[in-house]
Amino acid sequence: SSSSVAGYNIYRGTSASGPFTKLNSALDSATNYTDSSVQGGKTYYYVATSVDGGGTESGYSSAVSVTIPTP
């Protein structure tokens, strides 16, 4: 896109292939994200998209997985 990035959307799922649920209610301008609504002992998969100044959202990034330790 010729427009600059306005922000990012963060999505989470329980499978690397989705489905993914958007976590943020407004565009996030940071390049890191803290998810405080996870449960110990579970594995989560995260993808991100970028949104340009015109509101066009990119496709999903590659998924990354995180396994939350059991407390």
Care to give the gist of this entry?
With 71 residues, this protein is mostly beta strands. The chain is built from no helices and four strands.
Question: How would you sum up this structure, described in words?
Answer:
This protein has 71 residues and is mostly beta strands. 0% of the residues lie in helices and 35% in strands. It is built from no helices and four strands. It has a four-stranded antiparallel β-sheet with strand order 2-1-3-4, with no helix packed on it. β1 and β2 form a beta hairpin. The chain is elongated, with a radius of gyration of 13 Å. It starts with a strand and ends with a strand. The mean pLDDT is 93.
The residue fraction in helices comes out at under 10%
Count of helical stretches: 0
Residue share in β-strands? 35-45%
* Biggest sheet strand line-up: 2-1-3-4
| Overall radius of gyration | 13 Å
N/C terminus separation: 44 Å
Using the alpha-carbon principal axes, give the shape.
elongated
SSE pattern: EEEE
SSE class: mainly beta
Q: Mean pLDDT, as a whole number? A: 93
Question: Regions with pLDDT < 50 over 5+ consecutive residues?
Answer: none
Largest sheet composition: 4 strands, antiparallel
Overall number of strands: 4
